[in-house]
Write a sequence for this structure.
């Protein structure tokens, strides 16, 4: 479903992604972990061109784009293959949960309001938020807002859903709400790439885990194996640091 070849992304002289290549199968859930600044989120944002890569090739389903030179038509075609779920939800604050979902269908796809709302209600039911259809984001918890964001992503029927730290802005008791929805999507064979700092989340949800550091893929493998018994020293050190308790004195 996804094939990335020799992807490079620079910000000025700073090389954030260095010759990154990866493949994701149809229906596979891949979690990307690694320290801050390792290029995880940049890689995700390059896949739907929120960041423009400098070199390399991206293929999603039957759409291929050469980063060095592409047309607006090719850019639009690639973007339509995926949908993004952001860390901070990115919902329209002046629109209800239902309107957040139907906006793209009505404005971008020209769908009739009644048809878009039918899809919106179905998706809200799917993520357990049908009673909140007419509520505004300010009245929803973080977990509820993120579930609306997932429903909005599903509305455009993407081939791939990209999650950028979907649980990191949530209170711990709200994480399970989002986890349950993503687990259900995985059972429905939805292809997903999830950037996360939460190892338990990665272990429970993902088929495969990729560890990134310094703009390259250091190691990858089955999720449980990668979290419990990584082979690379950098991965081992990263996971060890996460599990060590922080000691401090005042």
């Amino acid at each position: 479903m996804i094939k990335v070849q020799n992807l490079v992304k620079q910000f000025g002289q700073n090389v954030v992604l260095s010759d990154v290549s990866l493949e994701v199968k149809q229906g596979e859930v891949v979690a990307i972990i690694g320290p801050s600044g390792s290029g995880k989120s940049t890689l995700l944002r390059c896949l739907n061109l929120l960041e423009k890569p400098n070199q390399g090739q991206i293929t999603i389903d039957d759409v291929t784009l050469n980063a060095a030179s592409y047309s607006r038509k090719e850019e639009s075609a690639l973007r339509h293959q995926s949908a993004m779920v952001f860390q901070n939800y990115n919902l329209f604050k002046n629109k209800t949960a239902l309107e957040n979902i139907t906006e793209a269908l009505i404005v971008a796809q020209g769908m009739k309001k009644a048809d878009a709302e039918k899809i919106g209600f179905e998706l809200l039911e799917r993520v357990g938020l049908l009673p909140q259809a007419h509520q505004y984001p300010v009245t929803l918890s973080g977990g509820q807002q993120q579930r609306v964001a997932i429903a909005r992503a599903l509305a455009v029927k993407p081939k791939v859903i990209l999650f950028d730290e979907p649980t990191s802005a949530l209170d711990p008791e709200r994480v399970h709400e989002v986890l349950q929805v993503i687990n259900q999507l995985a059972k429905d064979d939805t292809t997903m790439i999830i950037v996360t700092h939460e190892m338990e989340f990665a272990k429970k949800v993902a088929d495969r885990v990729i560890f990134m550091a310094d703009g390259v893929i250091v190691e990858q493998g089955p999720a449980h194996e990668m979290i419990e018994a990584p082979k690379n020293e950098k991965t081992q050190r990263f996971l060890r640091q996460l599990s060590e308790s922080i000691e401090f004195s005042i």
Observations:
- The chain has a mean pLDDT of 93.
- Strands lie at 2-11, 14-24, 29-33, 55-60, 63-66, 82-85, 160-164, 191-195, 208-213, 216-222.
- Residues 91-158 form one domain.
